[in-house]
Amino acid sequence: MNFATRAIRAGQQPDPATGSIIVPIYQTVNFVFQGVGKPSAFEYSRSANPTRRAFEQCLASLEEGQYGLAFSSGMAAIDAALSILKPGDQVVVSENLYGGTYRLFESVWKPRGVQFSYVDGTRPSAFAEAIRPATRMVWIETPANPLLQLVDVRAVTAIAHKQGAVLVADNTFASPFFQRPLTQGVDIVVHSATKYICGHSDVVAGAIVVNDQPLFEKLAFYQNAVGAVAGPFDSWLGLRGLKTLAVRMKQHERNAQRIAEWLVADGRAAGILYPGLASHPQHELARVQMDGFGAIVTVRLRGGLAAVERFIDGLEVFLFAESLGGVESLVCHPWTMSHGAMSKQDKDKIGITEGTLRLSIGIEDADDLIADLDKALARV
After folding, report:
1. Bridge-partner residues for 345, per DSSP?
2. Which of 6, 180, 195, 300 does the annotation list as catalytic?
């Protein structure tokens, strides 16, 4: 089956009890045992739940993976991926990444004895230069939040695996519709499923997909032990979101491409970042390793924070809020929001300025979105 069909059918057989074509919300804590030492197919919803299982199976299918795990948030999924490490291990990280991931690395896992080395993710050789005998993991985010740098996945796969390191890819920005890193050699794919996977800004969830069974068993053990699982209702909402992922992503991308091109032609913003533009420094790499260019457009305004404030005040259709990936268009100010956990020095180093804005392009009418941006830019 092709992607759009699997998004609707994978892991989602009609309910055997009632014939319902929609997977029920199994809002239960426990399941009856068949006798002493004889559990049913499910025992306790922290360990496994039928609704969550269907969500996990569908996610795995869309990522072209074997095993899926659904978590209570994207950060819980990232934490679980790190759980295979021990004190003294080193992780080589592409330096452009979500601020919450950076905070987890530096404030939670570094004090536990795990070391992190940050490199320019656009240069595969930078990963090779940072490899040490203690390197056990390589972490990439592509496209990166918020400046949309790409990592050459196949090149970094070869570098990581030569060392025997596990390669983790955060695929949140692309979604499995536009990119499936497991097919390019990645070992662990993580998602903030809050974003495009669920797609309606009404559920917080995370996900991991892998192909290796022993690795899956380690991650599943940690998930069960810690208990940061997606609940039945959240899993059901996730399944609902997946059903429309293909059609949503097509519209997201159409709008994003048109808006990016309009912003370039308009000229009032100092810089426009979007992989679908020929001017993007890694446009050709995006064409090779992705099936589309995504729905995030990042702009830099002249005039810094004051210009940002005037721009935000002029918006009506775009909403000024955290997060991304919903059907509605959002604007985020990374300096104070998504990357607020980073120091000024770290933000300066990776190119996030006070005038940087991340536009999460929704599926509204593109003419309305452009008119809204036009009005806001007139205030800058």
Report:
1. none
2. 195
